Amino acid sequence: GAVVSQHPSRVICKSGTSVKIECRSLDFQATTMFWYRQFPKQSLMLMATSNEGSKATYEQGVEKDKFLINHASLTLSTLTVTSAHPEDSSFYICSAVLTTYTQYFGPGTRLTVL
Amino acid sequence: AQSVAQPEDQVNVAEGNPLTVKCTYSVSGNPYLFWYVQYPNRGLQFLLKYITGDNLVKGSYGFEAEFNKSQTSFHLKKPSALVSDSALYFCAVRDMVNTDKLIFGTGTRLQVFP
Fold it and tell me: Using CA atoms, how far apart are residues A95 and A104, in angstroms rounded to an integer?
């Protein structure tokens, strides 16, 4: 149990285009999901908290107009990187809260912006 | 401020030997502590957590961790390392303000040599 999926696993796009990444909890409902960004050989940086039915809460320094988050249902949150640029290239990971205090992570999405 | 420290960037151990990956924390109040493992190009997998009770916590894949309040530590251990244990390990503590959020350490790369 407690499986979280992400789609796509890998995406390459041109600079200036937008990319949508999906995060799904497959066998449980998640009121809260998180989006992280991970740079090579570094820890996870929390970008935002996604709450079903309400606006996402962004961490300091994260541009909410650039990283659009939608949590339309209890099993799906999406992250859209708008007008992507090479510096947005990164590994994006989502997680979903199943029980109190325990997050389950998706496999990650590797974004490369050319 | 709340924080988690993983003092070792990398730990090398021979297969069959015991392994220890260190973690210390700084929080006010009672800490909720977690260990996650990340394999290359994958998301994080939950290993174990300490919330309350026995200081020795047993988790997945034969790993265990010992909570030591006086030393503010939560070191991850395994009696006999496997080559397949080679991965990136993250220690995390629950955010005391937003209790669904996790504060991650910088990660420790474990390399198990045959």
Answer: 5
Residues in chain A: 114
With contact defined as beta carbons under 8 Å apart, do B59 and B65 qualify?
yes
Instruction: Centre a 10 Å sphere on the Cβ of residue A57 and count the other Cβ atoms it contains.
Output: 16
Pairing, β B44-50 against β B33-38: antiparallel
Test B46 with A102 for CB contact under 8 angstroms: yes
State the pairing for strand pair A32-38/A90-99.
Answer: antiparallel
State how far residue B13 is from chain A, nearest Cα, in angstroms: 20
Tell me: the pLDDT tens digits for A8-26? 999 999 999 999 999 999 9
A100: pLDDT confidence band, cut at 50, 70 and 90? low
Task: Inspect the interface and report whether the beta carbons of B34 and A102 lie closer than 8 Å.
Answer: yes
Residues 3-32 of A with CB under 8 A from B: 4, 6, 32
Find residue B48's DSSP bridge partners: B35
Kindly list the residues from chain B whose CB atom is less than 8 angstroms away from the CB atom of residue A2: 46
